[in-house]
């Protein structure tokens, strides 16, 4: 599959790059994508949620009323879950939500996500560029030139580029990552994936193994 290389002004450079069929042209595995996205979201959970149970509530241990003769249900402790301020029944406890997947499955998921994007013509390639200094306005102009203004987009750098990264941080709909930060969730979550020309070789090399 060949894709035209654009400059940061959205104009064709006259060059084309061939996207590897082993990464951008496979039959997508929806289940692999599902498992990888589920793992990513699960691993974002801190698991620090905690509610106090009956034994952890501070309060008197005396019997709050006599056993019989009140006309109401018997009650022994103010810390009982049936009273306001009492302990919570089966409350949440700290838990590790971390999940693990094999490297092969994670690579299959990323190839599947990229192939789905390529099939839907949601992949663009731009020649490598930089800004003289970090300016949100400069990155916004690139988005407008590429027709991505206000749309969820993911830019994949060839190498770490501080000025481009900092210029994008104030724009919530766009994200800039390096190849090592690229994952299935970010690919699926973006409406369009924009690769810097210098990033393709490393991505294909890593995902083809």
TrEMBL record:
List every stretch annotated Disordered. 57-77
Top-level division of the source organism's lineage = Bacteria
Q: Name one GO cellular component term.
A: ribosome
Q: Which biological process annotations from GO are given for this protein? A: translation
Q: List, alphabetically, the InterPro entries matched.
A: Ribosomal_uL4, Ribosomal_uL4-like, Ribosomal_uL4_dom_sf
Q: Give UniProt keywords alphabetically.
A: Ribonucleoprotein, Ribosomal protein, RNA-binding, rRNA-binding
Keyword flag Aminoacyl-tRNA synthetase: no
Output the PANTHER family linked to this UniProt entry.
Answer: 50S RIBOSOMAL PROTEIN L4, LARGE RIBOSOMAL SUBUNIT PROTEIN UL4M
Known role: Forms part of the polypeptide exit tunnel. One of the primary rRNA binding proteins, this protein initially binds near the 5'-end of the 23S rRNA. It is important during the early stages of 50S assembly. It makes multiple contacts with different domains of the 23S rRNA in the assembled 50S subunit and ribosome.
Its subunit composition reads: Part of the 50S ribosomal subunit.
In its UniProt entry, what is this protein called?
Large ribosomal subunit protein uL4
Which source organism? Robertkochia marina
Q: What is the lineage of its organism?
A: Bacteria, Pseudomonadati, Bacteroidota, Flavobacteriia, Flavobacteriales
